[in-house]
Amino acid sequence: MSRFRLYPTPQQEAALAAHCGHARYVWNLALEQWSMWTRDKGPTPRYAEQARQLTEARAVFSWLRAGSQTVQQQALRDFDQATKNFYAGTHRRPNWRRAGQHEGFRIVGGQATRIVKLNHRWAAVNVPKVGWVRFRRSRAIPDAKSYRVTCDRVDRWHIAFAAIPESIPAPGTGQHVGIDRGIAVSAALSTGEQLLCPRPPKTEQRRIDQLHRRLDRCKPGSNRRRRVKAAIAKLFARARDRRRDWVEKVTTDLARRFDIIRVEDLRIAQMMKRPKRKPDPARPGKYLPNGRRAKAGLHRGILLNAWGTLVRRLDEKAPGRVERVHAAYTSQTCSCCGHCAPENRESQAVFRCVACGHQANADVNAAINIAAGRAVSARRGTPPPVPLKREPQLTTSA
To answer: How many CA atoms within 13 Å lie on the side-chain side of 63?
Structure first.
C-alpha cells in the first residue's frame, strides 16, 4: 500500500475518530456473533443478515445513525472476508479490535476515487460525512479503488491507498549478493559492506528510561500516567520510523544493484519464543535459571535490527529474485577452502580459518557463504569448495 500523512482539522479529527469507533464497534459485534457458534445452535449470521441488522440498529440508536453507513457496512464486509480467509487457511483467526490500538476504517467504491490535487505538495480526499481532508503528496498518488484511514498511538493520521506498487526490475548484470543478519551488524553483505540500522541516540534512550521510571510512580488511571505513556509512545514511534526508513532505502538499493539476493532461512518467530521454565528438583515450586534475561536481550536485538521487515520488503520489491539459504554453520565455514570447524570463529567479529589461515570479518565471511548458497548438513560435514566470483571488498558501511 501507498501511505500518506493526513492533516485533518480538529473538527475533522473528531469525526474521523467517531468513524473509527463505529467501525470497531460493528467489527466486534460481528465477531461476538461469529464466536457464539455451537453445533446445536446452527449457523451464525453472515454479511447479508448482519447488514439487515445494522439497518435496524441505525433506526433505533441515534449515535450509530450519526455515523457513516458506508464505513459501518464496510466493516461488516471486511469481517466477512476475514472469516473466509481464516477458513481458507491463509490468515489468522479474526481478533477483537481495541480502542487506542486498532483505530481505522476502510472506504471502497466511488468515494475512494474522489481525490483532488491542490498543488505539488498537497492533495485532498473526500471522506464520507467528514468532507475534504488534506494529505501530503510525498509521492505520486496511485490509481486505487479503496483506501484506509488509520490513527497510530501518537495521534498521527494516515491514509493508505490499496494499490500494489510495481516491483523493481533486475539490473541484468548477473551479480548476486549474500546477506548475513546479525545483532552487532544489522546486515553484512558479501561485497564487504556492513549496514547498521539506526539506533536511538543516547539522549533519547536516557529520556525513555526517565519516562519509564516516572511511569512506575504514576497512579493507575490518572491523567499524568496517560501523558507519560503518550510521551513514551511518541519516542518509540520515532525510532520505528527511523527503522522503516532505513529498511526502505536498503532494500531499494539492493533490488536495483543485484539480480539474485540470497538470505539466511531463519525462523524468526520460533527464535522469539520464551525459554521454557526448568523446575528445580531440590526445591519444589522453584525454578532453575533458564537464561531468560539473555534471551530477552536477543529478542530486543532482533526487533531493533528489523530482521523480518528487511526480508519481507525484499520479497515485495524483488519478487522471484530472493533466495533463502539454509543457515547451518555458515558462520563457521571458511569461504576460501570450505573447512568447517567451531575453532574458525575466533570471536564475534573475527574469523580465522585453522586450515588455510584465511582471515576476514566473521559476518562478511558468512555472507559470502550465503551468496554462494553454501551450507552444511546437521552432521557438520565439510562441504566441497565452491569457486566464488570475488567482488570488490568495502570496509565501511553505506
So the answer is: 6
Q: Counting Cβ atoms within 10 Å, is residue 6 exposed (0-12), middle (13-18) or buried (19+)?
A: buried
Write down the pTM of the prediction.
0.80
Phi first, then psi: what are they for 85, rounded to 5°? Answer: -65, -35
Q: Where are the domains of the chain?
A: 2-161, 173-398
Q: Which residue has cell 553505506?
A: 398
Among residues 307, 245, 243, the alpha carbon closest in space to that of 272 is found at 307
Return d(Cα 289, Cα 18) in angstroms, integer. 49
The answer to whether 168 and 317 have CB atoms below 8 angstroms apart is yes
d(CA 261, CA 322): 5
| C-alpha cell of residue 210 | 526517565
Burial 88-104 (b: 16+ CB within 10 A, else e): eeeeeebeebeeeebbb
Residue found under cell 453472515: 46
The predicted-structure confidence for 124-178, as pLDDT tens digits, reads as follows 999 999 999 999 998 888 888 889 999 998 889 999 998 887 889 999 888 999 9
